[in-house]
User: Which sequence fits this backbone?
């Protein structure tokens, strides 16, 4: 290290810098320990937070066979304390990664990043694997996915016409959430068809396969975030820490094996395809220009593939088309849509491609965690009324129109898509933890820092809203 | 500025070509957007804190209701169902039902208590109630043995 660099920062600055890796290590340890606590307690059996499930993780509580278990059934108190500990540690790590990203940018000054590339990858991988090894956390959705697959494969029942109640004798039925037993699938035909090969594996086999699918989708998403961050000149270490160590992403997203992760993977493939490495950028309308057209066509097709998994991601398409202003993405989207619709229609009939009615059905639901519900309470109303749904839809339309106008003027389409996804989750009356993950992968690869701040702020408010049982626990 | 990568769009008028950077004049727009975002953030934060306080107050009341049911029936049961709709949503009047003797949830004759009023020494006032047969939901047709002012007119004749 040069003397000049020393004198520039001063001795206290250098001392503080030496503590940074140790501090990052301690924060990572808190994050891992709190996640282990949730997983071990979750493995002890069902509770209000752990859905009834086949005993896939009981080996975690009695690793040496028999005897007293390691964990106690997960209650609100332990979970919320663990969630708050994770959140605090995550906030600290993000702040350190921010410093580290500055350090990497100023490598000539040889500042030591608080979080090295290797340790960041190890932390993110450890968190995902810990949750993968454990039980299904905080949601029964994965059992609905399995039920829909078993309806189609084992019972010959169209999951777009009937709810899981149609297979009341099937072994998966008892695990499906009570609120969803009469509800036909709202997911896209591509996802339903992808889940069909898992049905013959039995409930336990399908459950592990779903968990593996979520883990691989998460790993793929993080790898693409790394690639996109590098392509756009951002620090990839910071980007994957912000997404991969995010408590909502780890505990709710990967922990619940949600198909939102598959949708996010398709979204990131699409974004990645539009961000060609600098070496491949076309100089003129030559052969490399046609290569970029192919990539953009494929990117639009991937957005459609994501939408055929979960419709929300379709919101990226108008921003992509408006930004690129080429025929290739439009043709790619139309071709993918035609193929997807054809396959969906052939497999499930007209109901398999009727995304609008499924979206309308979900839009009418109200969750206690939605901001719309909280604002209704703030104004003394008992809950959300039909007129509020209309007002929220109008607000969403205005926001999307504004973002489209800005994209037309040259604003980054990836950032605009992120804002649109954030607006969808904030204006939705049916808000779940994994919905506020949607904009996060886009927020870490855009220059508009406000998107990342807004996404993390919304997540923080969501976590704060969970904490009321800490103040007055009901027993 | 026009996107250099979109060379095949050179035939199009400049306003139609992809842009590498945003048009100038978006500084004020950014200020307006940021102000709007801050206002939304304030509203969401106030609504969230208000809802946490409201939910904590509800939980505090429910804890008092559970304690009241256990004290009134002398049964220290944990599977007690709480209904906040029967006596009016938002009325802060609850109906709590649970078994009259040990057994699985709803597996024995159940007693339902209508509870409301201020929390005094960790409990609220029982204003009456009714009984339900084993395995029955709290529907008017299933109720019998109504008692107290809250039970009047709630049992089928």
Assistant:
């Amino acid at each position: 290290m040069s003397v000049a660099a020393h004198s520039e920062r001063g001795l206290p600055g250098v001392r503080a810098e030496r503590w940074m890796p140790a501090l990052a290590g301690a924060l990572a340890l808190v994050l891992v320990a709190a996640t282990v606590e949730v997983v071990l307690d979750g493995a002890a059996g069902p509770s209000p937070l752990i859905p009834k499930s086949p005993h896939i993780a009981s080996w975690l509580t009695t690793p040496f066979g028999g005897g007293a278990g390691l964990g106690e059934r997960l209650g609100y108190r332990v979970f919320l304390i663990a969630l708050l500990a994770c959140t605090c540690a995550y906030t600290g790590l993000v702040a350190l990664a921010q410093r580290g990203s500055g350090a990497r940018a100023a490598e000539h000054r040889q500042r030591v990043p608080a979080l090295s590339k290797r340790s960041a990858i190890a932390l993110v991988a450890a968190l995902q694997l810990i949750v993968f090894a454990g039980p299904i956390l905080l949601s029964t959705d994965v059992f609905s996915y399995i039920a829909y697959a078993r309806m189609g494969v084992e019972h010959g029942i169209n999951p777009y016409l009937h709810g899981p109640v149609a297979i009341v004798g099937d072994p998966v039925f008892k695990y499906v959430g009570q609120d969803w037993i009469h509800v036909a699938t709202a997911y896209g035909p591509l996802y339903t068809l992808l889940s069909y090969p898992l049905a013959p594996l039995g409930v336990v086999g399908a459950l592990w396969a779903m968990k593996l699918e979520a883990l691989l989708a998460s790993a793929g998403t993080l790898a693409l975030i790394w690639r996109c961050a590098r392509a756009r000149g951002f620090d990839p270490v910071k980007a994957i820490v912000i997404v991969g160590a995010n408590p909502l992403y780890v505990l709710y997203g990967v922990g619940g094996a949600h198909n939102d992760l598959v949708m996010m993977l398709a979204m990131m493939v699409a974004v990645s395809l539009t961000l060609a490495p600098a070496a491949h950028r076309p100089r003129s309308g030559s052969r490399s220009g046609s290569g970029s057209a192919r990539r953009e066509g494929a990117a639009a097709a991937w957005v459609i593939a994501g939408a055929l998994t979960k419709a929300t991601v379709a919101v990226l398409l108008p921003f992509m088309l408006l930004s690129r202003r080429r025929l290739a993405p439009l043709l790619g989207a139309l071709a993918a849509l035609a193929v997807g619709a054809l396959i969906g229609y052939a497999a499930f009939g007209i109901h398999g491609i009727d995304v609008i009615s499924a979206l309308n059905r979900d839009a009418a639901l109200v969750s206690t965690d939605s901001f719309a519900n909280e604002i209704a309470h703030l104004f003394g109303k008992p809950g959300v009324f039909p007129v509020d749904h209309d007002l929220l839809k109008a607000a969403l339309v205005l926001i999307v129109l504004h973002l489209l106008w800005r994209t037309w003027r040259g604003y980054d389409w990836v950032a605009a898509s992120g804002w649109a996804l954030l607006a969808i989750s904030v204006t939705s009356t049916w808000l779940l933890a994994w919905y506020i993950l949607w904009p996060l992968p886009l927020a870490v690869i855009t220059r508009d820092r406000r998107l990342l701040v807004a996404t993390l702020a919304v997540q923080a408010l969501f976590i704060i809203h969970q904490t009321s049982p800490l103040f007055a626990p009901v027993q | 500025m026009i996107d250099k990568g979109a060379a095949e769009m050179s035939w199009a008028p400049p306003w139609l070509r992809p842009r590498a950077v945003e048009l100038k004049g978006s500084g004020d727009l950014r200020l307006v957007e940021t102000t709007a975002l801050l206002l939304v953030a304030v509203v969401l934060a106030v609504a969230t804190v208000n809802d946490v306080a409201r939910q904590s107050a509800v939980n505090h009341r429910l804890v008092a209701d559970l304690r009241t049911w256990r004290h009134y029936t002398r049964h220290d049961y944990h599977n007690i169902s709480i209904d906040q709709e029967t006596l009016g949503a938002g009325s802060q009047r609850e109906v709590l039902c649970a078994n009259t003797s040990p057994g699985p949830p709803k597996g024995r004759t159940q007693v339902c208590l209508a509870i409301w009023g201020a929390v005094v020494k960790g409990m609220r006032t029982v204003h009456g109630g009714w009984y339900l047969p084993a395995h029955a939901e709290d529907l008017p047709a299933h109720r019998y043995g109504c008692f107290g002012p809250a039970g009047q007119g709630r049992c089928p004749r």
